[in-house]
């Protein structure tokens, strides 16, 4: 099939929630490269939106998946599952959590976290505590409840009435948070770096104060690490940059390296609120998905990928900072590890993304001003140099010549 055939078929049969997509279809991938139907090569600096941490078709990873496919794919949670037990163990041994539950996606992991926070207080007899405070411009998923948790009106408006019990406050604004805390509050849920709304970071001071407020008001602290987890920020989990441990954190995106799996991770006293029958999933944590998760954890921890993410992230930011010094149209470069945003002073990020695409580089554009980079954690300095060179060329071309 040609690209035009595929686009036509998509338009005819697929619900139009994605609008006009970027006009390309990939046939295969290797490392950070993807090849389209005409064998044009691309450098993938978006990594399937932070999913392909290992790059495309990592040889060790696909080998493990292939051999698992020949053995067993699904059995159901009526029975014990070896890879599920093992993945649970490795996540617990490498984090502050004591127990885990597997879902199929980030939204579902967050649903699980929200349910866990509510049932925790119910079972303590504190039935009036149900409200969850999240941040404005957050993103927690697309189910009705996670849309309610998400602090962005555009996702909420079409679906009202939403699940009740959510309040949204401005990021890094302690006073707003204090005001939002009432006796109904049961938890504060936040992303350490807001990915979907433009790579916005919570400050260390803010987080320290949030933790303090949680302790003082008997609130659970929930980190949505769906995007910041799994080595993305240069540490295995984002919270490890701070001297703060959440009561619950969620994972998904890179956890299965492209095979759908999410996780709710919690401290024992919270996790024990879930008793038989309280929660569940048909696919969640099946043998195949957990084999993928186990392989991802193994490769991340043993092949130096997290260290590489930290190192390459620093290098990448330094190179982008050089561009900022050269072109005044760049307002800011920010991020941690390989979760990086480049903000322009004007609304050109979409146009810029298209220009990079034409040159064979895949990046993200959030809002109207921010380019977002989430390359696989195996990225090298040579590959970063190629992207920076392309950015430099576009910035230097007539359209964007605003030298400082
Ligand atoms: C992507 C994302 C989600 C949603 O994950 P899905 O797998 O698409 O449901 C939730 N929270 C954050 C922070 C995300 O980046």
Provide the descriptors you would attach to this structure in a database record:
single chain; 404 residues; alpha/beta; Aspartate Aminotransferase, domain 1; Aspartate Aminotransferase, domain 2; 2 domains; seven-stranded mixed β-sheet; globular; binds pyridoxal-5'-phosphate
Low-confidence stretches: none
The 3D shape can be described as: globular
Total helix count?
Answer: 14
CATH architecture of the largest domain: 3-Layer(aba) Sandwich
- List the ligand species: pyridoxal-5'-phosphate
- Strand proportion, as a percent range, falls in 15-25%
Query: In the CATH hierarchy, what is the class of the largest domain?
Result: Alpha Beta
> In CATH, what is the homologous superfamily of the largest domain?
Type I PLP-dependent aspartate aminotransferase-like (Major domain)
Q: What's the overall average pLDDT, rounded? A: 97
Termini separation comes to 48 Å
What is the tally of beta strands? 17
Radius of gyration: 21 Å
Let me know the largest β-sheet.
7 strands, mixed
> What structural category characterises the helix and strand content?
alpha/beta
Helix content: 25-40%
* Whole-number count of domains: 2
CATH topology of the largest domain: Aspartate Aminotransferase, domain 2
Query: If strands are numbered along the chain, what order do they take across the biggest sheet?
Result: 4-12-11-10-7-5-6
């Amino acid at each position: 099939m040609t690209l035009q055939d595929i686009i036509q078929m998509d338009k005819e049969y697929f619900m139009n929630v994605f609008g006009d997509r970027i006009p390309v279809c990939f046939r295969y991938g290797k490392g950070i490269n993807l090849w389209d139907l005409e064998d044009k090569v691309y450098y993938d600096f978006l990594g399937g939106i932070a999913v392909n941490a290992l790059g495309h078709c990592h040889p060790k990873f696909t080998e493990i998946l292939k051999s698992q496919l020949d053995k067993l794919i699904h059995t159901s949670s009526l029975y014990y599952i070896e890879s599920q037990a093992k993945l649970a163990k490795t996540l617990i041994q490498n984090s502050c959590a004591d127990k885990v539950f597997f879902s199929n996606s980030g939204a579902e992991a967050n649903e699980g976290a929200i349910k866990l926070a509510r049932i925790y207080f119910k079972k303590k007899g504190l039935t009036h505590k149900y409200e969850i405070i999240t941040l404005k411009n957050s993103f927690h998923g697309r189910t009705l409840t996670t849309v309610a948790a998400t602090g962005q009106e555009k996702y909420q408006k079409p679906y009202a009435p939403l699940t009740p019990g959510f309040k949204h406050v401005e990021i890094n604004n302690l006073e707003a948070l204090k005001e939002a805390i009432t006796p109904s509050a049961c938890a504060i849920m936040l992303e350490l770096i807001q990915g979907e709304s433009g790579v916005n970071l919570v400050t260390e001071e803010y987080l320290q104060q949030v933790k303090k407020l949680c302790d003082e008001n008997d609130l659970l602290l929930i980190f949505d690490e769906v995007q910041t987890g799994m080595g993305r920020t240069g540490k295995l989990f984002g919270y490890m940059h701070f001297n703060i441990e959440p009561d619950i954190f969620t994972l998904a995106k890179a956890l299965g390296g492209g095979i759908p799996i999410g996780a709710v991770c919690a401290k024992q006293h919270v996790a024990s609120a879930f008793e038989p029958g309280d929660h569940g999933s048909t696919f969640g944590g099946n043998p195949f998905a957990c084999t993928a998760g186990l392989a991802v954890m193994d490769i991340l921890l043993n092949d130096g990928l997290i260290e590489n993410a930290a190192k390459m992230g620093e290098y990448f930011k330094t190179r982008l900072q050089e561009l900022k010094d050269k072109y005044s149209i760049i307002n800011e470069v920010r991020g941690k590890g390989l979760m990086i945003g480049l903000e322009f002073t004007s609304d050109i990020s979409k146009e810029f993304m298209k220009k990079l695409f034409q040159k064979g580089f895949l990046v993200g554009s959030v809002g109207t001003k921010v380019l977002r980079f989430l390359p696989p954690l195996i990225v090298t300095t040579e590959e970063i140099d190629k992207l920076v060179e392309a950015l430099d060329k576009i910035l230097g071309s007539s359209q964007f010549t605003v030298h400082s």
